[in-house]
């Protein structure tokens, strides 16, 4: 297991452990921390992070801002990539492009 998996599994077994993990992720990646991410699942093949609609994430159209959604997608894919690459030290990853397509407004609980 990678260090991210081990920490997630350990904290998942504790009361409020997932909230502690979310806090750690927000400290390690402060730019992504402003969307208040909550990591629901993390393994080498799957990462699931949710955000809840909050007033500071809203745009003038009363929905979650597009950049907050892009940030959620970036954090989810980045955490999955880092976790998966921990299993094979011969590879490293560098993000070269991020592209987002927005189909409709987002409100409430958003899962990536």
Describe this structure in words.
Strand 1 (38-42) and strand 2 (47-52) form a beta hairpin. The radius of gyration is 15 Å and the shape is globular. The longest helix is centred in the C-terminal third of the chain and has 20 residues, at 66-85. The model has no long low-confidence stretch (mean pLDDT 85). The protein has a three-stranded antiparallel sheet with strand order 1-2-3. It is built from four helices and three strands, in the order H-H-H-E-E-H-E. By secondary structure, it is an alpha+beta fold.
Keyword list:
112 residues; alpha+beta; 3 strands; 12% strand
Task: Describe the sheet with the most strands.
Answer: 3 strands, antiparallel
| Cα radius of gyration in angstroms | 15 Å
As residue ranges, the low-confidence spans are: none
Number of strands: 3
The helix fraction, in percent, is 40-55%
Q: In terms of quaternary structure, what is this?
A: single chain
Q: Count the DSSP helices.
A: 4
Topology:
Layout: H1 3-12, H2 17-28, H3 30-33, E1 38-42, E2 47-52, H4 66-85, E3 109-111
Antiparallel strand pairs: 1-2, 2-3
Compact overview of the structure:
By secondary structure, this protein is α+β, with helices and mostly antiparallel strands. The protein contains 4 helices and 3 strands, in the order αααββαβ.
